[in-house]
Amino acid sequence: QVQLVESGGGLVQPGGSLRLSCAASGIIFNIYAMGWYRQAPGKQRELVAVIRSSGMTNYADSVKGRFTISRDNAKNTVYLQMNSLKPEDTAVYYCNADHPDPYASDYWGQGTQVTVSS
Description:
The protein is an all-beta fold. Helices cover 0% and strands 50% of the residues.
């Protein structure tokens, strides 16, 4: 059974920081591209950052220079370090595991709420 369990969300003031974690089980973690997505109320889910099995990363323009994605294959965990948070970063953040075979299933976590407000 595949599980992706996110943690680390919460309420933070503008300019603050949070670190999200996503622990995976039931998959061969090191072959998957791992991504963080977010969905704000009334908006579509959007890609925030992705880290491939090679370690290559990509970021949405809106978070470049503020967010850092990393992975620890020994712990089957992906992280999202979020600095200089803005109110517009408020959303539910989801972890995604994307198999390199495009015909294979990908997997989602249940989401963790991040609220940036004073």
